[in-house]
Amino acid sequence: MKARSLPVPIPLLLAVGIAAISFSGIFVRLSDAPVSVMAMYRLLLTNIILLPFMLKFRPAIRRASFRDWTLTGLSGICLGVHYLLWMNSLRLTSVASSTVILSLQPIIVLIGAFWLFKERTTGKAIAGMSVAIGGTLLIGWGDLQVAGDALTGDLLSLAGTFAIALHMLFGQLVLRRMPAMLYSFTAFASAALVIAVYNVAFGFSFGGYSGQNWLIFALLAFVPTVFGQLLFNWLLRYVSATNVSMSVLGEPAGASLLAFWLLGERITGMQMAAGAIILLGVWYFLKHNKTTEAAAKPQQAAIAGSSNG
User: Fold this and answer.
1) What is each CA distance from 31 to 52, 197, 209, 214, 215, in whole angstroms?
2) Whole-structure pTM value
3) Which residues does 296 contact at the CB level (< 8 Å), separation at least 6?
4) Where are the domains of the chain?
5) How far apart are CA 206 and CA 142, in angstroms?
6) Residue 252: which H helix or E strand, with range?
7) CA distances (Å), 42 to each of 89, 119, 126, 195, in order?
8) Are 172 and 304 in contact (CB under 8 A)?
9) Residue 306 in contact with residue 176, Cβ under 8 Å?
10) Which tens digits make up the pLDDT trace of 128-144?
11) Residue 228 carries which DSSP code?
12) CA nearest 3: which of 302, 236, 283, 242?
């Protein structure tokens, strides 16, 4: 099956994923649990949701090579490290600064995809990427700091950005041979283990949280993870990691709108303009990036030979 034969257009699926992950910040704001605990239960509860579907992947589990399992485990470790580095960066630097640094993710993925998969793109696509990243710069322009604790926080955010970029590149590599749901289940388990070790090391409790917190944990699993991260992982079978990482740049705009509607947070004219610029840049990139079908073809060739694809 080729990407263009999907019953739902890929841009619509990317839009659904962006909307889903945009709820993440809203749910975090509504909980008073440690953010690392939220991240751990978000992944663990997602795997509980996925567990009944794992039986159908028994043939794929037997077929997967040691290399596939290793790369999937590394992908999950990178995801867990990203959560920890990025969350800790927010204790030292501003949300705006961290958001701007995180917007470098597509550039890192683009370079990695060229190195690993020999993917190339067009000048128009790069222009669209530049426009979108410029929009994130507008969001954090007045809040960037380069000294003291803020510098440490910015460096943590940058390291976390490299980690999530590696997670996506590992995913594109493994999903040439492994079903998306099996890959996601294994990667999420690895990420949850990394975060659990962190929670034990720093003395964060695994229990004693209110019913509202457990509801938030479940919502984090169901909305931004199942309909966001899991959907993006599945789409890596059909589009390049660069396209997916570019789409994620739409999250700040979506999160700002949701915060306005649900939490009553104020949106400035600059934020509205920046959000429009980000979405315009993402749209222009996706329209003109020519790596999509090139990346999908070798993946589809591998998937076509799998009855569990």
Assistant:
1) 28, 22, 10, 9, 9
2) 0.80
3) 2, 3, 237, 238, 239, 240
4) 3-304
5) 38
6) helix 251-263
7) 20, 33, 34, 11
8) no
9) no
10) 888 888 877 776 555 55
11) I
12) 236
